[in-house]
Every structure is written in C-alpha cells, then in structure tokens.
Amino acid sequence: MSPSPFAVASPTDPASYSWEATDESVAARFGIPVSEVLRFDLNTSPAPPPMVAGILAANRFETPLSEYPPGDYRHLVQAAATRYGVAADEIVPGAGADEILDLCTKAFLPAGEAAVISIPTYAMYRIHAEQRGARVIAIARRSKAEGWAMDVERVRAAAREASLVWVCNPNNPTGQPEPDGAIEALLEGIVADARAAGRDEPAVVVDEAYSEFVNESVIPLRTRFPNLVAVRTASKAYAMAGLRVGFAVAAPETLARIALYRPPGSIGTISATVVARALADTTDMEANVARVVAERPRLSAALAAVGWDPQPSVTNFLLLDLATAERSEAAALALMRRGLVPRTFGHGHPLAHCLRVTVRDAAGNDRLIDAGSEIAPTLPPVPAPAGVSVPDSAGAATTSETA
Fold it and tell me: Which helix H or strand E contains 395, and what residues bound it?
C-alpha cells in the first residue's frame, strides 16, 4: 500500500493519485477480518445521515432511475444557492469537490502556465496542475508554531506570474484555518498587483471542504473579487462522501468559464435528490458537526497522553506529530495490524513524521485510543533535542547534537 496518495509511475507519466487501499486489501495484508477494518484515513463520517434511508425507501427521485438526471440540476442548484446565500447562476454542481477542482484547472490553467500551492496541502492541486502541463510554484507554509499558516506575502509574490492560486481553508492535512483576514488580504494584493502590471488577475480557488466545521466562508467576498471561486462539498460535514456532490460558487461571469467543461450527467439522480434535501434541512449535518466538536477534544487529549502530539484542529481530523518518520511509519503499521488505517505521508513529504486520523464516533475513537496506548511504548524513542544530555545504554550521560 502506498504511504502517500501522490505517486508518479515513471518520469514520463503524469502525476496521479494513488488510491487508498481498500478494506479488503488491508484485511488481506494483515490477516484480519474485513469487519475489523476501521478507516481513520479518509476524513469521512461513521454513518450517513438518518434522512438518507427514508429517501431511498420512498424510491421517489427527481427523475426515474431509467432516465438521465436533468441537465441543469435545477433543484440541486437552487438548494445549494439557498444554503450558501447566492443566486442560482452563481452555482455550478459537480461530482464531488474533486470534479470541481478539475473543472477549475481546465478553466483557468492553460498548459505552460503556473499554479501557486501552499504546501503541505491537499495533493490533488499539484496533480491537476501537472496533468494539465502547467508549472507548480510551491510555497512553504509557515512553521508549526504558526499553525502552518499560508505565507501571504510569498504567495502574493508568486501569483504575479501565475494563472491560478490554490487555497485550502481550513487546510488539509494540518486541520487549521487561515488567520482572520489572510485570504482577503491575499485577494486584495493579487488584484492590486495585476492592475499595476496591466495583466489579468489569476483565479483564486478556495477549497472549503471543511468550512461547515468553522461556519466561515469566503463566499461573501465573491462580489468584490470576481476572480474568486469557493469550492464546497457534501462529503465531509454532510456525511455523504459516497454520493459525490460538490459545488463551485463564484460570480456568474467566472462560473461561465467553469461550466464550459462540466460533463453531462456526472451527478447521479439519487445523489442529486438526496443532497438537495440535505441542503434544505441541515438538521443531520448540524448533529454530525456537533458530534465531531464533542469527540475531537476527547480524542486529542487521549492521544496526547500517549505522546502522539495532536495539533490544534477545527476539522473532523487530527494531525499527530510523532517526531520522526521512523516513529510515524512504525505506528502506522502497528495500527493497521489492528485494523485501524491512518493517513500516512511518504518519505520526503514535509509531514513524513506525522499521521492524520479522522475523528470518528466514540466507539471507533476508543479503539484508536486503546491501540495508541498499546503501541506507544513499542515505538523508537523520540530523539532528544540538541544539547540535551541523555543516558546511554550504560547509564552514562551523553549529549545529543545535530549536524
């Protein structure tokens, strides 16, 4: 199983996503029943919303399943427009946020042009850009102590030669939001620089997959910044990842460029019907968010107690700092032997020393906590900080140094 979702088969092949191992693959590799496999790597919810069962049982959808869905997805679009507080012509639907990201890349990033990405972040931004034959300008995020915030000034400078800027807020996989006003300041700077240079403004696409967990959005900024696109999804807080529904939200003239690339019928009739209902009645979504908000600090405290250093998070996942790649890899293998699948990061990744885990329900989280308590004492020791005296195997004090 690949430790990372980013993979290149050969130097001449385009970048591609290495899909997560299936439950069956995990079970076969580690010799455990499939029923014992529990996913902590996908940032999904333990169960779909209760409303879904009733809709499926009623078997009444917008069109019969023998027919294609409506080409304009009118009811779904109107439900999204109402939920996000925009007009219907400011919404383009797609098969999950990932299709929306692909449409944005096709609309705004010609081959040979540049896209700006703040790393570490969601792997698909780089993959979409490289598959389009574009250049990637990767800007390192600020330090762990600064919450891995986007370096606004460096991103702004890089945007002067770019056609597309990717922003993830809250950021995946670090789990933290950008500081108040940071994205607005970036947009203002990008617009000012483009006008001063007499060039078109690059598109700024803000992936808001986890925005329901913070109840904040850049959508209100779209009236000031026509180059802004917000991306939303039904996969995370709405707990319907399997239905594959997402949206682009932007000014109509911007959406017109995206809509040119939207394939017909990419959202199934069942998906369109169920998500439209969920957007109209957010009771189940709000309950899911409340579950995460209640469980997240408990899970974080328990994993901190075993020394796995959970980072602050406003999302439905935690980033665990295990100090070294050797420790994170050993912990990941030990967890998978118990049927618990964390998100890992490949060697060379800036978070290779970390694991990411989903906040599941109490029972699932208890399995992770119990496993962590068993595994932690078996891991390689945490390296001592430079200059700190530690006892050697004979009990004598030695000094840890860095090159």
Answer: none
